[in-house]
Amino acid sequence: MGWTRLYALIVKELLAVLRDPKGRAILIGPPIVQLLVFSYAATLEVRNVDVIILNRDSGHWGQELIERIDGSPTFRNIEIAAEQAEVQVAIDNQAVIAAVEIGPDFSRNIEAGTPTDLQVVLDGRRSNASQIVAGYLSQIGAALSAETPAGKRAGASIVSSVPRNWFNPNLTYQWFMVPNLIASIALLIGLIVTALSIARERELGTFDQLMVSPLRLHEILIGKLIPPMMIGLFHITVYILAAVFLFEVPLRGSLFLLYGSAIFYLGSVAGLGLFISALSMTQQQAILGAFLFMVPAMLLSGFATPIENMPGWLQPITFVNPLRYFLVIVKGVFLKDIPLSEVVNQTIPLALIATVTLSAAAWLFRRRLE
Q1: Across the beta sheet with 75-81, what order do the strands follow?
Q2: Is residue 5 a part of any domain in this protein?
Q3: What is the residue range of 244's domain?
């Protein structure tokens, strides 16, 4: 009889989500659109950069530097300024992200073998992009310096480095972004679907009926837990197929390890959703609560910035973030062929988070019964 009751509750939860046209649209349309859009748009690469150059040098090397910047695929429009005021206006109006000023003695110093400076003015309002552009310009300047007479004379004493990128040889950004989106969008869908579960019952007036039904407390929790996990596994499967066949991201690891850890990941996400849902009285409160957790979870997961770069007092907070652990697993399975031991090390915290959140949700349900 217990399995029959549990099966009926699971079917009822699935029908409550899938029979609603708006619910179906939310579950199917936006996640696919997000995967396609974010895979191309959400990138930290800096391309199509506009720069302005103030060339005070009339020699060969100043013009050579301009041609090299113009020939770089990173830069789109190269404006030539006649005076310093044009540079200030271009930066102030965000018409360009960087300005390069070539001094009047640039070519003369190069021919004489004297060190010379190249002034680069960057728009600090776009700090990350400015740092990357500064790196691009430094590389162009270093390459030019190596071909000057002084650079050729010192060539024998210069140590050259040859970079080799493991796991992503061509630094294809989608190889990094798509696995991250698999975990992030699964968090979004799983959290919202679960958070709305109890809140929807309360708004419809069926929550009290559910609590006085023959269903036991653990059966209610399991019945509310399994449908979001099934929906999450469906989305993860769609994303994996898209990653492999659409974006051509290599799948070097074991799908068995990926799906095994995904069950614990979705369990921890559903546990957090049930906890939020148990605290909420309306669906609006549940959605707000889900987003209140989701935004910090994205920022503190290592998705965009390494956790090691965060302040020391902030890093311990990331230990309760399930996205942190699953990102390591999904990127490791796709790009690295992560071993079983590492998957287990990342899955244990997911199991602990699921246990704690589900226990907290059960405690809130008991209080409702009292």
Answers
A1: 75-81, 49-55, 98-102, 119-122
A2: no
A3: 171-367
